[in-house]
Amino acid sequence: MITTAVGNWKERTFLKWCLFVFAGAFIVAALSGEAQCQTQATGRSCVSCHESYVYRGEFPSSVHGNNGCTSCHTVRNIARHASGEEKPPLIKCGSCHGQIAADFKKDAHYLHQSFQCRDCHRKIHALKKAPGDPKVAVARSCTDCHSSEEYVDLGHTASVLKGNKDSATCSDCHSLHKTQSFHIGESASVERGRAYYTDRCKTCHGNAELVARNKLRPNVVESYEETYHGKIQRAGYPTQVAGCADCHGGHNTLSEEDTRSPVHPANLAITCGKCHSGTHPRFANFEAHPDYRDFKGKIALDITYLLMVGLLASVFIFFGVHTLLWWRRAYWHECEKGGGEPPTLTSGAACEEVPYVRRFSWRDRVMHVLLIISFLTLVMTGMPLKYSGALWAPQLFRLLGGAEMAGVLHRAAAAVLWGLFLYTCWLSYKFLFPKGQGVKGWVGRLFGPDSLCFNLKDWDDLKGMFRWFFNRGPVPKFDRWTYWEKFDFFAVFWGMTAIGLSGLILWFPEKSSYIMPGWLISVASLVHSEEALLAALFIFVMHFFHNHIVPGKFPLERNIFTGCNSLEQLIKERPSEYERIMAEGRLESMRCEYPGVWMNLFAGLFGLASVFIGLALTFLILWAVFHS
Amino acid sequence: MRKILKAAIVLVLLVFVAACVSEKPISEVPGELPATGLSRMMESERVLLVNTMSNIECMDHRIPGSLCLPCEEVGEKLGRLAGDKEAPVVFYCESERCYRSCLAAADARKLGYQKVYTLKGGLVGWKEAGYGTESPDRIPRQAVFSVRPSEAVSWIAKKKDVLILDIRSRDIFNQGHIQGAVNIPMHELHKRYGDIPQNRRIVVVDQNGYRSFLAASYLSRKGFGDVVRLLGGMDRWNQYQAVNKSGGKT
User: Fold this and answer.
1) How far apart are the CA of A54 and the nearest CA of chain B, in angstroms?
2) Could you write out the DSSP letters of every residue in A108-160?
3) Which residues of A are less than 8 Å from B138 in CB distance?
4) Each residue of B207-232: pLDDT tens digit?
5) Could A148 and B210 be called an inter-chain contact, meaning their C-beta atoms sit closer than 8 Å?
């Protein structure tokens, strides 16, 4: 019995405990449930007063229908509120839609019109998710106010309304809750606006899949970036050039076949004329999106591209091989054999005791200094434009005082180079037709040993050098000018024809349209750009190697600054010239003093600085080429 | 001689120090106060903060504690306020350029206020800095249709029953306006909207399209059923006229 009683007591205690635990759990559950159900419960009480159909009928099925009234509207004292003494404070949509609210603080509608959420999301208590494509819903919502045909009847939004899900609706360009307003305020705002919208255009039109799906013209972004407009824009100076909307229009963007489009051929002159005044109508033939590789449209562009690529490739391949073989012969091969000093064409002798002979006159030296200054300036100011997408381009522009200042410096340097070129032409004329002799004997002078024109001996020397490269012969006996020096000289001549003329066209594009079609400006742009690359790399790699890197000259050949060679250097480097001088008895007249300390110092500092700048620019160019 | 030299040096130094210490009177050069500066000033001292937009705009959105005093009425009404003219007065308006607040600041200086400032960047600058506004009488925005100048011209040409309501200041209106336009400046609209006929389509015109939206919303709230606004205001209208000289007359 006792056992049974004890058992019953235990059983009752256990049951009590169970009941207690269950009751506790129930209370906890009820309390937590109350927290969840509070809004619903309060919601029901709200509609007992706020009894219109909006709250009773529409709100429960709206997008916020799962929330109770107090999710948004907070009332401290329901009795005071019911008696009209307490009004609920303004609702804060941001308490749930935090990111949108934060974005909206930067939105033009808020900043300039003090918009609130409900100004667009009207009928907030009956708000429903718009049926169909959200892009259409956005367009319809925006056009409640921005209801001009300018925005929706034409262009992207019209396409959206017709059902194209790829086309841009208002928010794709302007964003939804961070709408920018660039057309008011100061110029900095305009600058940001042009960059911003051009970037927005690039986002879609640079998407190859989207472009293919919609049968749009491919490579419009890349081809825009090939032009002066695109390059300057990329380099961070968008106010100075046309962005996408400047030519294609901001909202009523239409195909170029549409006569209402600003880029329709009939309207192009007016469109270009907005920025370019004083042009011939044929200026509008300019290729704003040149694709040099598609063999469509202006075939001249593609042919020019091929020619330029061929030119660059042949020069770099030939002189690349030439330089490598020379380097191998001069350094690597000899060092590998471990045999003494590397072979040189020259003598390193340079001191006050040895005799010196004149190689360059004051005029030549000054001309070369001017050439160096102008050439380095041209490369320094031009390359950040050519490689405007490179990381260093905007920095270099900034260092130079901006793209506009770089343009001024580029033109000033170009004017100096043009002056040097024309003066060289005059000197060449005087060399060929000296006073008193007229045209008599000009062919002999042209192909003579003192001329910079190629002759048969150069061909022999070239072959001789290749034999020497492969240890099959001695170094050729050079005369006054070697074939690579003549190539340098000729490169300037053809370079000035190509770079100089194309540069003039680009300098005066509006005026040039009176004598040539607009598309030639695109050709000029390509020629100028590629020829500049050829010139820069040739000078900074090949010319530097020939004159400063080879044994006996490293790190700098100073004779172009000092004007003198040692006699030993003349005998070793140019034995044929030495023999001619001796035969003609001119050695005494060519003797000169050892260049003084100041001249040597200037030569060293200026020369080394120039070489350093050139090599630095080469590094930047190669970085841009391989990075892209 | 040395004494003279020393005296001269001391004199020069004194002049230099005096020049550095002396402050330019603010009344001569009205300062531009950034939003953060205004906020700090409001915390530390009593500031007369004046919203120079219209009453409608000011009541719709303003910096908390602002006095609504339209630019056009500053000269007339600011003097009536019994206030400490040594206390700082800060004017602000809607736009970043603050043209109206600058005009008001000039009037305040004429009235003898010593510390006159304008808010840098106006109300936009205040909002951009992250500060809030208050809306004692907010006007719910309406979906106000905007018409392009070409469309407005065609309405006028067809002699449609359209009332061109120009809400710019009277003096600016007198310098040139759309033919047949009626001028009720924005700062008078809340008093004079009753003069506007209810049965006509109203085209609200402002300078650049930024004030007409609120004015049109205000009129809608007041029961005007057919209110639209001119896209881009008179700036856009004048551009259109320049391109199409055969269009409407100004």
Assistant:
1) 18
2) HHHHHH---HHHHS-SGGG--PPSS-HHHHHHHHHTTTS-SHHHHTSHHHHHH
3) 116
4) 988 899 999 999 999 999 899 999 88
5) no
Which residues of A are less than 8 Å from B147 in CB distance? 148
Per domain, the residue ranges of chain B are 24-128, 145-243
- pTM of the shown model: 0.75
The domains of chain A are located at 2-82, 135-297, 300-339+352-627
Q: Using pLDDT thresholds of 50, 70 and 90, give the confidence band for residue A532.
A: very high
Which option is the CATH number for A300-339+352-627: 3.30.450.20, 3.40.605.10, 1.20.950.20, 3.30.300.20? Answer: 1.20.950.20
A413-465 pLDDT, tens digit each? 999 999 999 999 999 999 999 888 777 889 999 999 999 999 999 999 999 99
Min Cα separation B215/chain A (Å): 11
Class of domain B24-128: alpha beta
Q: Which amino acid is at A476?
A: P
* For A121, nearest residue in chain B (alpha carbons): B141
Given CB atoms, is A596 within the 8 Å cutoff of chain B?
Answer: no
Tell me which residue in B133, B214, B231 faces A148 most closely, judged by beta carbons.
Answer: B231
Nearest one of B117, B65, B60 to B94, comparing CA atoms: B60
Adjacent-strand bridge partners of B117: B31, B90
Q: CATH code for B145-243?
A: 3.40.250.10
CA of A110 vs chain B CAs: smallest distance (Å): 9
Residue A106 forms contact with B (CB below 8 Å): yes
The reply to whether ipTM tops 0.90 is: no
**β-pair partners for B164:** B203
Tabulate helix, strand, coil % of chain B (nearest 5). 45, 15, 40
